[in-house]
Amino acid sequence: MAFPPSPLDTINWNTLGLSITDAVNGHVESTYTLSTGVWSTPRFVSDPFLRVHGLSPALNYGQQAYEGLKAHRSPTNSILLFRPADHAARLSASAAYVSIPPIPEAHFLQCVKMAVARNAEWVAPHTSEALLYIRPLVFGSSGHLALTAPTEFTFAVFVQPGTTYHGVQPLPAVVVEDFDRAAPRGTGGGKVGGNYAPVIRWTDRARTQGYGVTLHLDAQTRTCVEEFSTSGFIGVRKAGEHVTLVVPDSKNIVASITSDSCLALAESFGWTVERREIPWSECKFFDEVVAVGTAASLLPIRSLHRPSTGETFYYGAETGDVTVKLGTAMRNLMRGKVADGFGWTVEVKEEDLLVDEAVAAQAPAVEDVSERPAEVVEEKMNGVEHTNGSVDSKEIEVEGKA
Ligand SMILES: *Cc1c(COP(=O)(O)O)cnc(C)c1O
Fold first, then answer.
1. 4 cis-preceded (ω within 30 degrees of 0)
2. What is the atom index within ligand 1 of the atom nearest the CA of 229?
3. Cα dihedral across residues 71, 74, 77, 78: positive or negative
4. What is the 229 CA–ligand 1 centroid distance (Å)?
5. 129 contacts 17 by C-beta, under 8 angstroms
6. Which residues line ligand 1 (CB under 6 A)?
């Protein structure tokens, strides 16, 4: 069979949203054992469930880090990842914040490519608005009560098809003032779970007040812009034809790969790029403000409100032309519609299915199976099924589709 397979023809790709359907074929798992210091050969598991010890540091101490990246289908039907090596580097940086060993770039790429290759029919048609969202995840997985390194870590890669809506209307944003996302010298630079769960109640509250996006200022002085709760901040200034993009350079924010890509594109357009502190007061002078991230792409901000001062800065109800130009360029690059002069896209190929390696991973010599759930391998695309869990993957698929 030729690789990649065509997109499923039973899916309405333009109305997927991002809700979890559990309809994909499965996920990839690899474990790191402290005594050997190596990550195991990736295994494909044909359901969305993990066996995690109830006393694992992941569940008890928040020892967890994650990534988010995307795959698209090109006009010539190849499957393209966007900047996966940069996501690999960032995951290891996030892991370091929470005392998790690094995931070597080659291993990250192998696992991500395998997860995408084994779910290739879930990569949407080039012409649709849909994407395959990829969620790599690493955590301390063995039972371990002491505040020391556990004996085992798990790296897993999940995929989820979804649709992001382009041409969205600009959204109003509000500054979160009763809560600090990230302390100075804290973990704010890491994509670690502990940075997100505390924010949910503030984003929920903001939404009830009509704000779809929340902005965080620096915790120490509350005078400088840091980032939105799940995306980076770009301020745009225009002087005649000349455009300047300004992004915060704080150590307490997640280094957005979307933002970095926008800045590189801006430079290629001959625009000016500034990475520096952004005082809140400067926000009044921006012509456009954009929230940027993998999941949201480029989300234009209509207004920025700060409750404690009563200030509101307006950027307009229509998407600005700088945001449109950057968004279109990003979209065309990710989807292989234009030549990639940056070397950002990486193709997923047939060998990334890793059929032989996945079988080899079941050999007891590679992994101590006494410490892991028993798994049965099927060499076909069905992949691996858990045999000792209470979970029946077929049951779940039906539930997910109901
Ligand atoms: C993931 C994330 C971003 C965006 O990073 P991208 O690489 O552009 O996806 C920005 N801020 C926070 C808090 C994030 O979690």
1. yes
2. 13
3. negative
4. 9
5. no
6. 68, 191, 227, 230-232, 254, 256-259, 292-294
User: Hey, which residues are catalytic here?
Assistant: 191
User: Mutation test of ligand 1: which of 231, 259, 299 has the most ligand atoms closer than 8 Å to its C-beta?
Assistant: 231
User: Which of 191, 200, 333 to probe ligand 1 with, by most ligand atoms within 8 A of CB?
Assistant: 191
- Low-confidence stretches of the chain (pLDDT beneath 70): 1, 165-167, 357-402
Which atom of ligand 1 sits closest to the CA of residue 68? 9
3-state secondary structure of 183: coil
Q: Could you give the domains of the chain?
A: 27-166+346-355 (3.30.470.10), 171-316 (3.20.10.10)
Query: 232 C-alpha vs ligand 1 centroid, how far in Å?
Result: 6
pLDDT at residue 376, as a whole number: 32
The one-letter amino acid at 316: G
- Give the rounded percent of residues in the chain with a pLDDT score beyond 90: 81
Burial class (CB in 10 A: 0-12, 13-18, 19+), 114: buried
Q: What pLDDT is stored for residue 19 in this prediction?
A: 79
Consecutive H or E run containing 246: strand 242-247
| Among 146, 136, 191, residue whose Cα is nearest residue 56 | 146
Q: What would the two tokens of residue 172 be?
A: 């109003």
Q: Which pTM value belongs to this model?
A: 0.88
Centre of ligand 1 from the C-alpha of residue 134, in Å: 14
The radius of gyration of the chain's CA atoms, rounded to the nearest angstrom, is 22
Which pLDDT value is given to residue 296?
82
